[in-house]
Amino acid sequence: MNKKKQIRKKMKSSLEELEKLVYEQSSYLISKRLFELEDWRNANTIGITISNGTEVDTWQIIRRAWTDGKRIVVPKCLTESKELLFKQITDFTQLEKVFFGLYEPKAEQEAIDKHQIDLLIVPGLAFMKDGYRLGFGGGYYDRFLADYKGNTVSLAFQRQLVESLPIEDFDKPVKKIITDQEVVVCHA
Predict the structure, then answer these.
(1) Residue 134, marked binder
(2) According to the UniProt record, what class of enzyme is this (predicted)?
């Protein structure tokens, strides 16, 4: 098993150990820190995934964005080209369950240009404080980030911060990592 697979397996196991009340409180603290950021306040269009399983809860973040009058765009994975297409949703019924129980925008939702996204919330399993991350595999976000110019943040439980990760040439760091204990400004 390669190093990335080992880290993914270990981190998934660690996240599964989170008690429900700790998960809820930590997700709340992470979203609270996000809402306090100037990046959030200044963003009109926010790219975000629909959380699943042990990921930081993004459902509450999406509800808050709608309340604040922000536009939410959610990625659709194009498996053949390994690309992400972001599509606007204005309510949760515009989503459908796809592979691995993930929610994505329905096919009829119109895609937007990536450069319209002011703030992209980038998912991941493990993070270093310099902004490099280990995703779920597939490289979808690294390809998307290659020419993306907007702000990037990742949401993580404190236990997802690690000392080191295997980094490759195509890996793209995020600018900030928001945890239940701190906001890390990254300097990759």
Answers:
(1) yes
(2) ligase
